[in-house]
Amino acid sequence: MKITAFELKAMQRMQPGALTLNGFLGSDTRPLNEIIDDDAKVLARLHYSQEDVAARMEYFFRISWETFLGDELVDGKYEVQTDVFRGKLPCPYGHVGLYRKAITSVTNSTNGISVIWTPLNIHMIRDHGFFEGKGSAFRLEPDILVRAIFE
Ligand SMILES: [Zn+2]
Question: Residue 122 above 80 pLDDT?
């Protein structure tokens, strides 16, 4: 599958030092459309859509954002915390708007799986199906993420 000019431009913005120090692609050498396709297949196999996943991430983010109490036990089994940092980030796809710098961590006490993400991750999953490249600091493996937030 051929990469589009739009995707190519996004890939340039995902390089280290463009929008963020470390970029979004990690050590992944696949073209952006392949990264997205491969993750979409994993999600489809698990019967979740990128909207389902993003909505669930947004749910945990909202609860922990509004409490400001540090660790929050959500639904009796998810330990959730959001730390907020100074500054905002744009989406590498070049959309209008900025995303707060914040890190949400969720630990599922049933299976012990922990994941972290940023508000930009939620947007990139919902609108672009992009979970970041392998080796990137905020890469989310779709199967691990699904286990962490739905099990
Ligand atoms: Zn975007």
Answer: yes
Distance 69 CA to ligand 1 centre (A): 30
In whole angstroms, what is the distance from residue 109 CA to residue 25 CA? 30
Domain count within the chain: 1
16 C-alpha to center of ligand 1: Å? 18
Please give the distance, rounded to the nearest whole angstrom, from the Cα atom of residue 76 to the centre of ligand 1.
Answer: 33
State which residues form the domain around 84: 5-150
Residue-level pLDDT at 69: 62
Ligand 1 centroid, distance to 111 Cα (angstroms): 32
Q: What is the pLDDT of residues 56-99, one digit of tens each?
A: 999 999 998 877 666 778 999 999 999 989 999 999 999 888 99
Residue 17, pLDDT > 80, answer yes
Contacts of 24 (CB under 8 A, 6+ apart): 14, 92, 130, 132, 133, 136, 138
